[in-house]
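Bench notes, bay 3.
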Amino acid sequence: MWRTEYGDRILEGAEAKVFAEALSSLLDEAIMDTLDDYELGIKCFDTLTFGQKISVLATIGNGLFKKDVKPVALTAVLEAGIGAVFNHLYNNIIVEIDMPELNSNWRKLLVAARKEMEAEDIPDPSCEDFDKWNFEVDELADAILWDRDYEDGDIYMDHPPEKTQWLKHMARIPDNYYTAIADDLNDKDAQEKIKGLRNLCDSVISVS
């Protein structure tokens, strides 16, 4: 389960499928040993070690897909990981538009998820307007993420402790939100996590 603005829940249906496909695709970067050099535009995630990135993605996958997993406390690195998956989804859509010969179906997956959410004015899968797809990805992300506090760490942490505490209190940000550290898995454990997470994504995709 995962704590969202709409309560503790897991992803299901088309929403689960598009996220599982994007997460599995991001794991391809790990398998190809390119994840460390893949900048997703989210400092809080991009600066993690390989082992930490896999740990974060595994926590996210288990929390978003498994009902029997107790919701974890939301932290900057975990929410940044979710943001990273959605940024990867958008990157894949850009590639799909620029390289139609690849015959991918990212826009169709996103449209199905947004229709399931009863969204309005959804673009046709053939649409090539990057801004429209960026909006749709953001709307999908908003169904999981409360906000984008993970992007504002420098604002809160570059002050004396007293002011930092006051700012976080005013914004209702937990004390350890920015200071929580992801487990840094060794290579063997990271590979095991990748294998288990890929199997989990495959199981979600097959039934969604």
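Next record in the batch:
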Amino acid sequence: MDWKKRQKADPYVKRAQREGYRARSAFKLIELDEKDRFFRPGQRVVDLGAAPGGWCQVALERVGPHGMVTGLDILPMEPIEGVTFIQGDFREDEPLAALEEAMAGQRADLVLSDMAPNMSGISPSDQARSIYLAELAAAFARDWLDSQGVFVVKVFQGQGFDAYLAELRSSYVQVRIRKPAASRAESREVYLVASRPRV
């Protein structure tokens, strides 16, 4: 089935349009939170790879008016009222300095990463690039998370996955592996929910 037909037939695409979310991926985050209950009112949330904004929308709803949501992406994102968005590559100093300013010296309660590389169709190369992004996100979370914080990251199963999971398990008190219903069955993506960084 080609991409357009699949999108048209996808119940989560229809539901996202109906409920006003920018992307079907919003339902992955909603389901993850329903299982693991990592959102709380008033939290400070950083969303890595935020565009087009579906996860920012969910985060904003769940942290409420006293929370703070900051999105970061190399791609542009249409503004969302109540979300601070920084466009840039978080491997570079300038976007990180802007994020530091937005956070006003405070640590994040929750770091989210739904990042994925642009897929080339060459499986080993795509897998290596996806693991690299997940490693960057983990390094970012290590620097930015509060001691009671949670790190949620998308990872593709394949070469490097077991080593990445082992590294996360050594760095956090608890790590859960999740495959939300909104994640397409044929996709090798899973989400890791890592709680409480080890000091």
